[in-house]
Amino acid sequence: MAATMHSVISLTVESWTLYPLGLLLIAARIISRRILLGAFSKLQIGDWIMVFVTVTFTGVIVSVNQVSHSRSNYLPPGTADQLTLEQRENAVYGSKFVMILEEFMLANTWLCKACLLLFYHQMT
After folding, report:
1. Model confidence over 8-22: pLDDT tens digits?
2. Are 96 and 69 in contact (CB under 8 A)?
3. Among 90, 105, 108, 122, which is most buried by a count of CB atoms within 10 Å?
4. How much is the CA Rg of the chain, to the nearest whole Å?
5. Backbone CA torsion sign across 95, 101, 106, 109
6. 3-state secondary structure of 77
7. What are the distances in angstroms from CA 74 to CA 90, 92, 94?
8. Distance of CA 94 to the CA centre of its chain
């Protein structure tokens, strides 16, 4: 149990350390584009997509921490029968957050890919 608690704490520290770094990079992009273009109203679609990426990135960080704290129903065979009612409810709650996490990760990945495609389109 100590190793499991250590991994939960480690994931929490790592994810919340990554979060401000990601937001800093997105903010640096938006600020540099604002300086280049002269006004926020002149930002292009790729810039606005990156602003929306902050929402999905926040969802990923929050969801991954919820899943790590509550666990999910990914249990070895035969283990589910031995769970108490509270542990079972916790596993169901964690499983719901796994689904939310997967949706946020997919949205985040595809939005970043869309930004790259728009960037490559502007270069050619």
Report:
1. 888 899 999 999 999
2. no
3. 108
4. 19
5. negative
6. coil
7. 12, 10, 10
8. 16
Block residue for tokens 């689904």:
99
Residue with tokens 């990914």: 74
Written as one letter, the residue type at 23 is L
| Token pair listed for 81 | 């029968």
Per-residue pLDDT of 22-52, as tens digits, reads 999 999 999 999 999 999 999 999 999 999 9
| Residue bearing tokens 């704490």 | 9
The span from the CA of 28 to the CA of 93, in Å, is: 36
Q: Under a CB-based contact definition with an 8 Å cutoff, are residues 57 and 100 in contact?
A: no
Q: Work out the burial of residue 32: count CB atoms within 10 Å of its CB; fewer than 13 is exposed, 13-18 middle, 19 or more buried.
A: exposed
Give the span between the Cα atoms of 99 and 46, in whole angstroms. 27
| Joined tokens for residue 124 | 């050619």
